[in-house]
Amino acid sequence: MDHRPQAWGRPRDDVYGAYDASYLQTNGPKTATQSPIVTGTSVIAIKFKDGVVMAADNLASYGSLARFTDVKRLRPFLSTSIVGFGGDVSDMQFLDRHLNELAIDEAYEHESTATTDTDSPSKTGQLNAANLHKYLSKLMYRRRSDFDPLWNQVLVAGFDAHAKPFLASVDLRGTTFTSPSLATGFGAMLAQPIMRRFAATEEDAAALTREQAVDVVKECMKVLFYRDARSLDRYSIAVVTKDGVELSEDEQLEKQSWAFAERIRGYGTQVV
Amino acid sequence: MAAMFSQNPLMNGPNYSVNDAPRVNAPEGAREHRFDPYTDNGGSTLAIAGAEFAVMAGDTRLTSGYSINSRHHPKLFKIGGTTADQKDATIVLSVVGFAADGEALKEKLDAVCKMYRHRHGKPMSVKACAQRLSTILYQKRFFPYYAHAILGGLDEEGKGAVYSYDPVGSYEREQCRAGGAAASLIMPFLDNQVNFKNQHIPNSGEGHALQERERRPLTRNEVEVLVKDAFDGAVERHIEVGDGLQMMVITKDGIEEVLLPLKKD
Amino acid sequence: MFRNNYDNDSVTFSPQGRIFQVEYAAEAVKQGSVVVGIASKTHAVLVAIKRNAEELSSYQKKLFPIDEHVGIAIAGLTSDARVLSNFMKQQCLGHRLTYGRNMPVRTLVDMIGSKAQINTQHYGKRPYGVGLLVAGVDEQGPHLFEFQPSGMTEEMVAFAIGARSQMARTYLEKNIDKFADCGREELVRHGLRALKESLVQDRELTVDNTSVGVAGAVKVDDGSTKVEPFQVYDQQDVAAWIESVADDKEGGAGAGEGEGEGEGEGMEVDS
């Protein structure tokens, strides 16, 4: 008989064998997203006089493999805002489901009061793009602080509380910033300089027309397709204005010219 | 032989550029965490306390690596006002380092100040706010806010007060402090120009007999010029500093905010 | 002596389908001094009569700011109101932190509604002994809500709760059509007139016993709304308003029957 207090009330080792505590051990790293797997490349967006234009191609890559060629990476929210996702596609889909829930909750919350104002797509009081961006930034920051990041860089476009065009970014670490034009991934190197020529400041952006903004974005998508190896010539483009979101998810890059490729030397088989 | 097939994603998983590749030397089964929760978003801040004012300043560039993410991202925040627009605030916090942590720190401190006002029916003093900020930072001692914070305001006697912090909460009240990417460029300039370090009275003697120039508090105008000079210098020599200069002057009449252009290159 | 067997807890129905504890809690609201709230298209106001327990004591506060856009007026147990007010402050702060906007007033009121309802369905709990008028502005404009210890919440154009509040309600009912287009000052005056109706015979509105709270949302040219933060006015700040309703007979005394409860009976209410 074992008389030690720590043995009281426990199964006796000599009858039941020593307790195997090994499966209770929790040492060793906790597993979470450690790197992106299936990824989307750049998202680009630019503000104009009365709204924002955003675009992203329809490709989801598995490493260097062009794995899925019909993936929609722009997502409307409450038909008043647009969210564009770069980075991990599964995390994007998680966020998409999460934003759906949020939108439904928000719609219920304002159901009883949503009566008159039918001329505007935004029911007054519903989350605007600025609110949504704030929320997403808190979500992303929380996940990074838990060491379980959502491996995305996200652009949010729409309007703020003062009904001014709104464009902002949040990344997997919860870093947020705004600018008249924004681009994620390769777009930050290739598209952002082009867009900044047209909208270096908020005043410049406020002078741009919708047509100009769309043209700039399409031009940038072309440059990205030329130079970004993980890109595609089918893309989605969204224009968000006070009248709501116009989203086209099956655009084809037009007027491509690969003539410049002739003059490139020093890559691949072409040595001289 | 294996090297020949290493480009096949179906066999080895996706391919990454060299330094992005997952490390495989992790302990049994589980891979090692390689997510780095921090980045440095560059930028620089500066604070100078005067006799009856305090000046806080920071550039408005936000970088990651060689990219400029935004040309207008303020690093100065008014703290502890009654409303969201902080119209009646009396304290300014500047944060530089990892922008997301800076933002989180600011919101935490502001929420604390708001609850203080609810509970006590009066605004927080700078001294109390400074102590509380230290506690907030220290509470995350083992997963720190990666930010260099400076707090500015007016003390109980109406004198300018500047408190500077390290990322884990040790703090000190100072006459002036520079923080962030160009701190090492600006701080020596401040030592010389604000505290008159290494300034001597000409021909007052040789060696130890040489007399130091007498210290005097700077006027508000002198300080504002000094701040602009400090940042113009930093912009010239540091790639992460530039675009815009945000300056807040705290006086007994409230907080005045000025935005000046800096070089955008 | 008659003894009611169904009022020992708030989880047992009486055979008539009543929950006495909840009804008693509603009585506690009627012990508190009267508060009035009115909402127009641009403003929401709260006005209240403060009581002092004795000549030498100070007056108990009746209006409390919750967040920059919301305030409450209380009638009933002040300490219970403080619990609710703290909860509301926390929720508003949290909402502002996560979404960067004013919490919609309805959302906020629904939260205290659910919180109070829980107390009416769990053994060992006690309903809040306080009624609230919640006034605030959000993106849909000004709102006024009533909250009762039962957990009932309802949006109101104008309302009054507390001792002898029926008189005030009668005044409000008579003038209901005027409120929507009232300006800020006129709305406060309507509130004070309603308040006067509920006063006992020889008492008057004074700068000591009157509180006024106002929140506003005025549309500006660019389509956005400019929020006038909720602010409480006391003492000399209400003198002009009191003066302006001093001897007008507009509205007249309603045919209110009044509940005629005695003032403060043993229970520690917000005297």
From TrEMBL, chain A:
Keywords recorded for this protein, A-Z: Cytoplasm, Nucleus, Proteasome
Pfam families in UniProt: Proteasome
A GO cellular-component term linked to this record: proteasome core complex, beta-subunit complex
Keyword Nucleus part of the UniProt annotation: yes
Segments crossing the lipid bilayer: none
Taxonomy, superkingdom: Eukaryota
Single Gene Ontology BP annotation: proteolysis involved in protein catabolic process
Compartment list: Cytoplasm; Nucleus
Job description of the protein: Non-catalytic component of the proteasome.
Family per similarity comment: Belongs to the peptidase T1B family.
Protein name in UniProt: Proteasome subunit beta
Annotated organism of origin: Parachaetomium inaequale
TrEMBL record, chain B:
InterPro entries reported for this sequence: Ntn_hydrolases_N, Proteasome_sua/b, Proteasome_suB-type
Major subcellular location class: nucleus
Localization in the cell: Nucleus
One of the GO BP terms on file: proteolysis involved in protein catabolic process
Keyword Cytoplasm recorded: yes
Superkingdom of the organism of origin: Eukaryota
Sequence intervals crossing the membrane: none
PANTHER family, per database record: METALLOPROTEASE TLDD, PROTEASOME SUBUNIT BETA TYPE-1
Protein name: Nucleophile aminohydrolase
UniProtKB/TrEMBL annotation, chain C:
Organism: Parachaetomium inaequale
Record's keyword annotation contains Iron-sulfur: no
UniProt GO BP: ubiquitin-dependent protein catabolic process
InterPro entries: Ntn_hydrolases_N (IPR029055), Proteasome_alpha (IPR050115), Proteasome_alpha-type (IPR023332), Proteasome_alpha1 (IPR035144), Proteasome_asu_N (IPR000426), Proteasome_sua/b (IPR001353)
Cellular component GO terms, alphabetical: cytoplasm; nucleus; proteasome core complex, alpha-subunit complex
Proteasome alpha-type subunits domain sequence ranges: 6-28
SMART domains, alphabetized: Proteasome_A_N (SM00948)
Coiled coil, from the record: none
Protein name: Proteasome subunit alpha type
